[in-house]
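Severity: low
Component: inverse-folding endpoint
Summary: output formatting inconsistent between runs
Steps to reproduce: submit the following structure tokens with default settings.
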């Protein structure tokens, strides 16, 4: 009986470990431009935590956080990746963000005469 409980506990731990999301380190893309990613099961639930981490990263450098864009690649099974691109800017560069979401659907209209 003890072996069965031990086997079940190990199997459960390994199974749940496969569902965990993996946060990647902050990557510097250019001067004051960074990317932060999370990969794994249902990463959309980690988006606000990523933004909060990016904000605190900018605050530690004495700069202000400005979100550039969020890229989501999520499959039907729930696995996927979220990348946030952000800038750390000074007070003089800090302004209201202009979000321009790329089109998810492209429509090709063909007029037949």
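Observed output (run 2 of 3):
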């Amino acid at each position: 009986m003890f072996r069965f409980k031990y086997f079940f506990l190990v199997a459960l731990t390994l199974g749940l470990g496969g569902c965990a999301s993996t946060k990647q380190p902050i990557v510097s893309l250019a001067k004051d431009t960074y990317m932060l990613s999370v990969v794994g099961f249902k990463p959309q639930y980690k988006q606000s935590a990523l933004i909060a981490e990016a904000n605190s990263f900018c605050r530690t450098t004495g700069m202000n956080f400005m979100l550039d864009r969020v890229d989501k690649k999520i499959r039907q099974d729930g696995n996927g990746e979220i990348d946030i691109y952000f800038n750390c800017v000074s007070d003089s560069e800090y302004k209201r963000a202009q979000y321009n979401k790329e089109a998810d659907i492209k429509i090709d209209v063909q007029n037949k005469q």
